[in-house]
Amino acid sequence: GYLVDYxxxxxxxxxxxxxxALNTGDKSVTLTFAGNTWNLIGNPFPSAINWDNVTKTVxxxxxxxxxxxxxxxxxxxxxxxxxxxxxxxxNGKISSMQGFFVKAAGSPLILPNTARVHDNNWLKNTxxxxxxxxxxxxxxxxxxxxxFILFEATGSVTKGWYDADKLFSMNSEVPQVFTLKENDLxxxxxxxxxxxxxxxxxVGMLIPAxxxxxxxxxxxxxxxxxxxxxLEDLMTNTTxxxxxxxxxxxxxxxxxxxxxxxxxxxxxxxxxxxxGSRPFTVFASGNSLFVADNTGKNRGDVYVYNxxxxxxxxxxxxxxxxxxxxxxxPVGYYLVKVITGEQASSSKVFVN
Length: 352
Prior knowledge:
Blueprint: E1 27-29, E2 38-42, E3 48-50, E4 64-68, E5 76-82, E6 85-86, E7 93-94, E8 99-103, E9 109-111, E10 116-117, E11 133-139, E12 144-151, E13 164-165, E14 176-181, E15 185-192, E16 198-206, E17 211-218, E18 228-233, E19 238-241, E20 247-252, E21 261-266, E22 280-285, E23 288-293, E24 301-305, E25 311-316, E26 322-326, E27 332-339, E28 344-351
């Protein structure tokens, strides 16, 4: 690429020369696909290439990753697979002689002459926001980072082709956020199956310095229906209804457990409900029962009955937008009633 020297001698004015015939025709790039399969390669052409026109069958996931000092929120990696699977600053055009990472499953990677385009601005983002995508933004008021969650027919609960690995910023002052798959795989763009019931997504973080932070959810407007989205803070044992209050403020230190949060989702897409249109969202994750008040009044009594009509647990919202009950009960369906001064609401949930 153009930047060829990181030594102290590069600080002054200097000239680098490129001589010879300009590259044209299909180019074959040899990849290492045993051991460490990350490969740093480059665009060999005197023009940009369109990643959408590159065959990616030799890659382990079809993303490219480019490090950007000017990334929104702070320096970090931009990643791109296609128009629906990308970070905010990419459009799939890789500029002339730009270096980028790929993860190899075979070799070689062919960069075809037909992929060349007259567009060198790889940071330009002219695409619309994909549907059914949530964005998690974590920041400290100075810098921030984002993780993306998509729900689609090609998604998987295990790591798949449409998932982008999380590559961390080289700037130690920028906080980092990611989701997890298969317990410990850190993901920047997570592709999950269409949401038809309950789902819990682990959320991890890297805290650069002790202080105050916020975690913000956006993208609900891209869904036809997402009735319930709750954030559980495992450190403080609190749960917040992100439909009602999409920004969660918290204090953190560099020694906190990195896998501090759980994102609980409940509902199905395509029913035509608007997010939060139901007064209460009730669902179970494992043996934990969650009740979220979407009205903003944050009061009411919660009663849990088995299918024989026997009361097995009760609690109250007590001024909080959500409450959590740990149920030591057999697997099966249970009836949950929420009673306020204005209304009563009943839901049936499955406790596993």
